[in-house]
Fold this protein.
Amino acid sequence: MSGLGHLLLDSGHRVFGSDLVLNEAIDQLRQRGAQIYCGHRAEQIAAARPVLVIYSSAIRLDNPELRAAEALHIPVVRRAVLLAALVRRQRGICIAGMHGKTTTTALLAFALDNLRANPGYAVGACVPQLPRHARLSGKVQSPKSKVQSGEAPERPPFFVVEADESDGTLREFAPEAAIILNVDEEHLDYYANLDAVCREFEMFARQTRGPLIFCADDARLYEHFANYPRAFSYGFSPLAHYQVQSKANANKTSANGSPPGLVDHETRDCADSRETWPTTRFEVCYQGKSLGEFSTKLLGQKNVSNTCAVIALLHQLGFGPSEIGGAIASFRGVERRQQELFRDSRFCIVDDYGHHPAEIQATIQAMHQLRAGSGSRLLAAFQPHRFTRTQYLLNQFATCFSGVDRLWVAEVYAASEAEISGVNGQTLAKAVRAQGQAVEFVPTLTELRRAVRSAMVPGDLVLFLGAGDITKAAHELAQELSHESMAQNDRPADAETRRSGAQQPAVGLHVGAPAAPARLSKKLSRDAVLRADEPLAKRTTLRVGGQADFYVEPASEADLAQVLGFCAEEKLPFVILGRGSNLLIRDGGIRGFVICLAQAHFTRIEISGERLHCGAGVKLKLVSVEARRHGIAGLEFLEGIPGSVGGALRMNAGAMGSWMFEAVESIRFMDYLGAVHERKASEVYVEYRGCPLFKNHIALGAVLKGQAAASEVIAQRMNQFSAKRWESQPAAASAGCIFKNPITIPAGKLIDELGLKGTRVGRAVVSDVHGNFIVNEGGATAQDVLNLIDLIKQRAKTARDIDLETEVEILGDELPRQN
């Protein structure tokens, strides 16, 4: 959708839009003049009054903006319809297929740009070597107007687009030329079966006016298109018009399945370092005659095959082999496709979008090429994408991870689908295990990242796979390793802080800071995390704040007691950090220790009848989801609270008219001397937005009690709460409600009546959706937020004589620490 925004801006249109969260793609559009709202609301359509509304297949038809457009009789079209219309205005080239089309589209656009063809393009991911992932190539003049003016008509420029088949819109496209990479059993939530998929591609082929390039290695494609007019095949098959051949031993294969003689190595120039990266060299023969040798920096046979598809199309368009070879050689791929996130002398972390068994097999084969001859292990973490795909392709998933030394499977990423009973990450892990391959199921991404990090030893290549949010875990691990590497480079080697096979505590000491954390490191278990100078903005929902002197994640209650004892001995302050909601950390950061109960011991949920035994670090959303899954009602209100069980106990968090302690049966907590206590909830005094007990005690967990009910009824209530929340609360980064409600009027209503919605200081803004929320538009500082809070307080006092009291907890120093 962001790509369409760029195309329409290139066409001279005014562009409005909406999304649930702010991100880099939205920032790019805003910088070009687009007006992008955060959240979907009907009044935004009424305010913009567009001439056309475009929506993606990810948007439900009951979306309030779609309903508003229909009520106002504004035309509404699917994303592919508009993109296909743009294709018809130019020399459209469509890349289609189940796997590999994003990389292939980007490669073709990159090559045409290098060939000075000045193409337009629309790629489905960020391409680092292109200025943005979608553009039109200047204004397109109608040939008809040229004829009327007496001038010879000019041919429109090429327009390369990634054509998606997932929702039945492939038939909308009628390009001048096309590449079909493959067909497979995919998107069976939409198509009845594989035959229906093939019919969609046949219709697309009939609508292609010029050369149709298809893969001869795909038996189904060859069956359908071998005798098709204007069709040219490519691949390793001897039947292909454009055949890939290795430089030697063409009839043999290597141990990992790659044709021998294809791979050598050269030094690659990177933005921040020089790394050794394999370059694949291969020969292409056209109808038995060699076109010459080509090379690519993309790894694996599938990428060699897809590169051959681009060579074939460019050759059919009239470009010479030598200029084609020069145009493609330096292409380094797109984001989340074999994307190297981190590399040092110890580890390499790679992020990949592969989520279908065929894609996973191809990526694993490519990773073997990357580690060829090194003797390193290949570790893989996979997040299944969609319940339907997991269900339909379970047998293929069970066997596609061959060649991986260690494997972790996370919970299914739903992608807006409803759950399917008996289909989940555990089901997939069990199927893999039944094939004789060791696999571990890890339900949350936080646990997944920690499990992988704990298992890593120097030399490992770690691969994260999946189309969902597993990329967050990959980036977090890469950042963690980067911090470790920098910390190790910045300090002399200290044998006391080294623990064989365990994560090294990244402790960087400053002038005046105690040197004792190395002693604390010896007291903690090997799974504990201890780091210095930890950025805290990323650990709060408001995304502002400075650094912590020291950050620690105890792996057990014994570890936590050791940390508390250490702080007491050294007279160091400490702060307990949950999920970072309802919290504002000043720009100067936090002195002493920040303790976070995020390790596996504190993030467990155990179900016993109608009770949930929850650790303090468990996300509240996960509590509500697990309760629904086990038919336990009464905890639905937790679904929208962006915090943890421990934080909710401390704040007696509430939503939708319910409060945390209404669902609590008993609590488990630790005093600052390290002693553990348990208490019934009826014995604990609580108040509005607070539980005084936790001012000097640390929550370890709680037993929550609900009532038996049908999962469908619980899900319906959760959906109602979710819809209400999105209608009444902003989706942008915030800390939740900033002020407690005064006795006489809700704080949000007061701020609205004072006309303060939309008021900003720097990049901090009073939300247009709810006046009691301050949102970070991206780049706000804690001081921006504090200044905005003071402004609101002063206006409330002056205009209404009301003293607003902050509900959000404010911690930290105003000024950064002096080293």
